[in-house]
Amino acid sequence: MDVHSYLFKNRFRKIFWPIHHHELGKFIPISGLMFCILFNQNILRILKDSILISEISAEVASFAKVYCVTPTAAIFVIIYAKLVNHLSFEKIYYYLISVFIGFFAIFAFILYPNINYFHMDATALDQIMSAHPHLKWYIALAGNWSYIIFYTLAELWPNIFYVLLFWQFANEITTTEEAKRFYTLFSLFGNSSLIFVGLLMMNLSSERTIMQYFIHVANSKVVLIQVSVFCVVIFALLSCLLVRFIGNNVMTNPTFYNRAKAPRSTKEKMSIMHSFSYIAKSKYLWLMLICSAAFGFAINLVEAVWKAKIKELYPTVNSYAEFNSLYILWTGVAIIVMTIISNNIMRSHSWFAAAVISPIIIMVTGIAFFLLVVFDHQILSFFDGAIIMTPLALAVSIGALQNILAKGSKYSIWDTSIQMLYIPLDDELKTKGKAAVDVVSSKIGKSSSGLIQSIIFTIFPAATFTSISPILMVIFTLVCISWIYAVRKVYFEYLKIV
């Protein structure tokens, strides 16, 4: 091989495959773990929206995020801070996944097929809601309690198992130098699960394909939930096996894991109150919390309106799930493409240059979506027949494009960027601080957004997402600008540490 060919091959490998052969024993199982967690995450994402929004309404999701998801997330952080002091990561992972999978299985095979026995009668519930219009969404929460619990746990899955536990695990056994080469490829392989989930769920939810074999013996939406949850259980078990394999084979191998790179503190573990007091004094964590909360706040404002439009176009559980599956599939494609494009940004440019991409994409596409919803008829009249879609179908399509680009940039660039900020921190901030930021922050963002929406819907029972879109658009723009400012500030703090 001549010198030019060797240099070209070496440069090609550094750009597209910067993993050395001896690192595969570490890289492959961690990538597999990420794949399993994200596989389940995206099945649950499709199910939670399809069930809650189709069975109840899009508006009730705002109330669920404020009054159910966020309090549960806060309780989890307290429990997790206690568990960290007494249990190994492996045991914590097993205990938590058992709780989640246990409920999902009970819901799919006991509660959902017999929902009439466990929920209040639909007619009686509607009468109570009509008699108390200002409280109707709170009544809907209580009357449909199993849907709400399913939605709450499915909402918490990505923050607990992906953002917190997976990245804590990865940060523990990956050096800063390895992270620059590994993390974007983790994202590439892990997020390829979206394509598999999209194809699988499109077939399961479509009554024109697999479901036609079940319709004569069962309710197709029940079969959809049961088969989907069965897949979640299988991949949850696979993830447990991978955690065990990494613990026994990677973390015991000096080639893959050198504890000297990040020595653990030998001092006594902090109490919960002392830990939270210590975390609260960290300006670095506060800025990270603002960044994560801003994402949750901004994306929830757009998604709330978009999901209400989807229900108008696809009113049943199966049709909603089928559309969601197609959206998930294309999100996976977008993540892979963006990961390949952005693979060298982190290594060839500053951290800020990579991290600021997501808020800019989300702000631009989000404003475009809101303008379409608010001025839909004027826009269609302006183009005068050039657009053959109905205003509703156009809004759903543009909203899907916005979410695909937003989620694509978030999962390919933003997640890997934000996780690098934890690597130089001490153990207390890496575990309990990370739990506080990763689990609570995005829920604070979503719940703050949901709180605004829930207050409007409580005061004005006849309000809909379409009618309040102008207000949401202004709030969305201000939040995105604040997000970009926070990214800039946390970058300066990061430079001081490294």
TrEMBL record:
It comes from the Bacteria. It is found in: Cell membrane; Membrane. Pfam families: TLC (PF03219). It is a multi-pass membrane protein. Keywords: ATP-binding, Cell membrane, Membrane, Nucleotide-binding, Transmembrane, Transmembrane helix, Transport. Its main location: membrane. Provides the rickettsial cell with host ATP in exchange for rickettsial ADP. This is an obligate exchange system. This energy acquiring activity is an important component of rickettsial parasitism. PANTHER family: ADP,ATP CARRIER PROTEIN 1, PTHR31187. Belongs to the ADP/ATP translocase tlc family. This is ADP,ATP carrier protein. It comes from Candidatus Trichorickettsia mobilis.
